[in-house]
Amino acid sequence: MLHALSCAPAEIVVVDNAPSDTRTQAVVQEFAGVVYIREPREGLDIARNTGIRAAHCPVVTFVDDDVVVHPMLLYRVWETFQDPTTAAMTGLIIALSLQTEAQLIFEQCWSFNRGYVDKVYTPGYVRAATSQVSQVGDIGAGANMAFRKSIFEEVGYFHELLDVGAAGCSGDAEIWHRILLRGHFIRYVPRAIAYHEHRRDIAGLKRQLYYYMRGHVVAALIQHKQHPQADYSRYLYLRLPKYYAHLIKAGLPFFRFRSQTLWSELKGIVSGFAFYYWKQNRMPKL
User: Fold this and answer.
1) pTM for the whole thing?
2) In 82-222, at which residue ranges do the beta strands (DSSP E only) sit?
3) pLDDT digits over 76-92, tens only?
4) Low-confidence winner among 29-43, 151-165, 173-187 (lowest mean pLDDT)
């Protein structure tokens, strides 16, 4: 798939994260020039950091194993980074299929699609957030993003505690927050397109959203420590509970469609607070 892109990648690095067999390695060996790395430590951000360290190109593009990329994706990445002010970028993510209830719920309520208009996120997006928390998650999604490799030397790598198996997720939003705080620009380019395969069953969606909310809370607490002038405490302790109280009331009495996942989300929120306060003394300085 990546070899067939209109703008061919200079290098392809496949990080096999905590594999239980050698199937991925066998597939990679069928393609000449692809670098295979086995990363035994489980975690998406651990795998991302391993890939960054192995990459030699000045721009690093990330795609997940559950996406299909548009043939012009890397051309759009190359085009965007011609602007020297671009430190990072995200692209449009479209649902690959909408055949099940779980996929419909995710696309309607949690979609990765950030619209069809170019956007530029400046340092003011987070620095000016004193009365309202900056929604860095609105910048994009980690399944389709790229970075100037040099930015990691300045702001640090992905926060490895924001992983499934650890905090949960939100490593992408947390690093965007750091990049903006350091005075750099991030661009959203809807012409850079990837297609995401959403979870097909409700059980898988519930697990996904549990970790989403767990990671969301931990990332918000980390961002509060980085930028205490922002209103993260009010958001986490007032606005977020108020929002979920509204969702619970709206879901009564049957808790159908979107309401099916509320209990998993709430458990994720509570778990996120517990995880952060348990690990805060071991949080790396970034």
Assistant:
1) 0.90
2) 86-95, 119-121, 144-148, 185-196
3) 999 999 999 999 999 99
4) 151-165
Domain boundary residue among 173, 201, 229? Answer: 201
Q: Which residues of 82-98 are buried (b: 16+ CB within 10 A; e: fewer)?
A: eeeebbbbbbbbbbeee
C-alpha distances (whole Å) from 227 to each of 126, 221, 222, 224 are 8, 10, 9, 5
Query: Would you state the structure tokens that stand for residue 206, as one six-digit string?
Result: 């519930």
> Torsions phi, psi of 38, nearest 5?
-90, 115
Q: How many CA atoms lie within 13 A of 199 on its CB side?
A: 14
| Residues 196 and 243 grouped into a single domain | no
Cβ-contact 187, 179 below 8 angstroms: no
Residue where a domain terminates, one of 201, 223, 245: 201
* Domain shared by 197 and 207, yes or no: no
The Cα–Cα gap between 89 and 76 comes to: 10
Residues 278 and 230 in one domain: yes
Phi, psi of 9 (to 5 degrees): -70, 145
Closest to 232 measured CA to CA, from 182, 179, 272, 187: 272
Contact at 8 Å (CB) between 159 and 286? yes
Backbone angles phi, psi at 74, to 5 degrees: -70, -25
Q: What is the dihedral of CA 22, 25, 27, 28, to 10 degrees?
A: 180
Structural domain boundaries, residue 235: 203-282
- Check: CB of residue 192 under 8 Å from CB of residue 71: no
Which of these ranges, 106-120, 138-152, 218-232, has the smallest mean pLDDT?
218-232
